């Protein structure tokens, strides 16, 4: 009778198909750390109107407080931002039409949660309207929380009239457009399938009659 070790040593040659995958993971555009810090400071300044509004609403709930312009041109959080991008990709009428997506990439774990944003931003972009994907430095999520009063690591912004020109200019000069090569000039290409020569263990055949007898007894 062969031992388990001897059985494991006996292997047969088999072939396994290998399918080439051209869909490499799209990446966030690289931004120099000093530029990330500058963009964060701009963003915190932009969000100050939201902080003032929230403070007034909380302190004087009976008073009617006019909403700041930015609240009509911004999405806060994962769900609202993703929904806006998906609608934009499908050319659905919506407000706002996002131009900038800001993500506290270094603070969000696991990274799988935000890995979809490069492709989302790319598909929601148009030839004359490229969405810029901006990553902020570590610790940004806490600083944004100090302003908004809640943790928000993902923000979508429309390029509205009162958005600081310095903020827009810095983004245009320092943040590259998203690149997703496998979505550019899409055309069907036959998949490349290869056969990998390898081995697999040879397992002894079971005697069904003996097995049945053992079960009956």
Automatic annotation (TrEMBL):
An example of a Gene Ontology cellular component annotation for this protein is: nucleolar ribonuclease P complex
The superkingdom listed in its UniProt entry is Eukaryota
Q: What is one GO biological process annotated to this record?
A: tRNA processing
Q: Which GO terms describe its molecular function?
A: ribonuclease MRP activity; ribonuclease P activity
Tell me, what's a Pfam family for it? RNase_P_pop3
Q: Which PANTHER family does the entry link to?
A: RIBONUCLEASES P/MRP PROTEIN SUBUNIT POP3, RIBONUCLEASES P_MRP PROTEIN SUBUNIT POP3
Q: What is the protein name for this chain?
A: Ribosomal protein L7Ae/L30e/S12e/Gadd45 domain-containing protein
Q: Which organism is it from?
A: Wickerhamomyces anomalus (strain ATCC 58044 / CBS 1984 / NCYC 433 / NRRL Y-366-8) (Yeast)
């Amino acid at each position: 009778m062969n031992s388990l070790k001897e059985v494991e040593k006996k292997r047969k040659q088999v072939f396994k198909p290998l399918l080439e995958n051209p869909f490499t993971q799209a990446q966030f555009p690289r931004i120099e750390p000093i530029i990330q810090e500058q963009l964060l400071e701009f963003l915190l300044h932009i969000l100050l109107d939201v902080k003032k509004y929230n403070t007034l609403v909380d302190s004087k709930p009976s008073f009617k407080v006019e909403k700041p312009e930015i609240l009509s041109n911004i999405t806060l959080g994962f769900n609202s931002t993703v929904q806006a991008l998906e609608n934009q990709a499908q050319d659905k009428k919506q407000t706002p039409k996002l131009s900038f997506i800001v993500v506290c990439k270094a603070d969000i774990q696991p990274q799988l949660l935000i890995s979809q944003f490069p492709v989302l931003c790319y598909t929601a972009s148009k030839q004359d309207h490229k969405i810029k994907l901006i990553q902020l430095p570590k610790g940004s999520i806490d600083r944004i929380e100090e302003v908004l009063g809640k943790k928000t690591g993902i923000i979508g912004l429309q390029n509205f009239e009162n958005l600081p020109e310095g903020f827009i200019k810095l983004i245009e000069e320092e943040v590259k457009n998203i690149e997703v090569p496998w979505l550019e000039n899409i055309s069907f290409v036959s998949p490349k399938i290869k056969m990998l020569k390898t081995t697999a263990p040879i397992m002894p055949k079971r005697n069904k009659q003996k097995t049945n007898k053992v079960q009956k007894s």
